[in-house]
Amino acid sequence: MFKSLVFKEWLKIRWVFIGLAAVNFLVVMNIYFDLLNTFKVYSANVVVGQFQAYEIVFYSNIKYILLLTGLILGVFQFFPEINQTRLKLTFHLPRKENKLMFQMVSVGVLLLISIFLFDAVSLSIICTKFLPREFFESMLITTLPWYIGSICTYIWLITIFIEPNWVKKTISILVAVGIVSLFYAGEGYGKYAFSIWYFVLLTGFCSSIIFLSAYNFKRGIC
Question: How many C-beta atoms surround the C-beta of residue 105 within 10 A?
Answer without folding.
Answer: 23
